[in-house]
Amino acid sequence: MAKSATDIDASPAARSPVGLLRLYADLIKLRLSLLVVVTAGVGCIMASGPDVDWLLLLWTVAGTLACASAANAINQVMETRRDRMMARTEHRPIPSGAMSPAHGWAVAMMLGYGGVMLLAVLVNFLAAGLALLTLLIYVLAYTPLKPLSTLNTLVGAVVGAIPPLIGWVAVRGTFDLGGWTLAAILFLWQLPHFLSLAWMYRDQYLAAGFRMLPDTPEGERAACEGTLLSTLLLIPLSLLVVSLRLAGVLYAACALLFGLWFAWKALRFFQARSNETAKAAFLASLLYLPLLLLVMVLDREPQLVSVFIQLEPVTP
Fold first, then answer.
1. What is the pLDDT of residues 5-22, one digit of tens each?
2. Does the chain have fewer CB atoms within 10 Å around its N or its C terminus?
3. CATH for 293
């Protein structure tokens, strides 16, 4: 049985420095926050071309990490009661009683203010504004919408699409097609990721009062269709990066291969709706994004162009 929410950090884990750090890592959903940092870092690197300002990159990812961590912590404070109703979330610090809501809120506020101020002072106001916008949408729109409408998935995807744009404007100081393309890739990727996850835990989400697409009439089929459609759209969208001369031939080949493999997993989910095929699609989403971003960074077009220029034969 979970401890009362009024118990102030009564868990023994909260009394040791190592245990407290572990609670903080769970509070901010560290793995999810690190994924946000990676996408912001990729946006920064892709906007930089061959000459990366590593100090600017450091401040950008640090500020973005702080803001993402704040959003996750506030989300846990706000959803404490519902988290206690689901097996996959009942052991989180606040729902389990290991940390008080007041403690979690204080940590979130310090991270949120610190992240926005860091970006404003050491990066630029546009990046800080985007980070603040992401935090506000997550807390004021996405979290309250989860028990009200299945549209929460789309709103959550918007939140996840902004971090690479933060990295992009940190370097360029403006919006352009390259930044929007990276954001669109992240938006589309989150749809199969969230929908397959919602399918696997649809009973728990329903019991906790969350409105997820697989729990609605005809929603099971719609979730599978959405998963398949979004993976198919990811293929041409990921190749647009090449058309914009942000990445080269190696990236194009890998993006096509990764995209077809991801779409195949989604097709299997569509053809045979089950927890097994949903899990396969979800795991594919976890592999697809980091692999795609890794190849994108390694095969940045400016580097390849400079090599080709050097190898061009001299015309007499």
1. 444 454 555 556 777 788
2. C
3. 1.20.120
